[in-house]
Amino acid sequence: DGGITQSPKYLFRKEGQNVTLSCEQNLNHDAMYWYRQDPGQGLRLIYYSQIVNDFQKGDIAEGYSVSREKKESFPLTVTSAQKNPTAFYLCASRTDYNSPLHFGNGTRLTVT
Amino acid sequence: DQQVKQNSPSLSVQEGRISILNCDYTNSMFDYFLWYKKYPAEGPTFLISISSIKDKNEDGRFTVFLNKSAKHLSLHIVPSQPGDSAVYFCAASARTGGFKTIFGAGTRLFVKA
Question: Which of A48, A92, A104 sits opposite B100 (nearest CB)?
Fold first, then answer.
């Protein structure tokens, strides 16, 4: 079955540590996205990538980094510079512009 | 600056009646709009979309209306069912800057049996 896999489902880290969230898709989609959701809030765009080896900052990119070395993979690193990293992180992809985003099931990151 | 706004945090509707969820946007570069349904601790599920060249798109019980001059879109669910209870997000995309897609804050819909 084609889809987007985010792993792990739950992730715990100590403050000051960098952590990388995995996002893999086998849908052959060109564009990929990372969003963050905080309790009671909407989805805020962190980074997005239209094609391999290219990505743009979203509205809340500070403290995060990404890479897009392969079409199917778009890992997100939450660095120690991110002030409030505890959140629910969602990865998405889409095949072209006039098509919907397909989402993974998310990773809940807790930093203590 | 919120480019996509859903001003109603929640909406309660009786089963069988119409649910109307509203969304406003500010960026005139947005030309593709989507609605998603989301349950806690899961990824959003796509419901319906509309391109800016249309003013209405219908899929079963779901209809999306777009008013470009008012920069407003709405999702109509008829008839509403208890299983429709969830958080609904609208989203808007712009071709400039590489398919940037922005979501609203969401509206929680309660459908009462």
Answer: A48
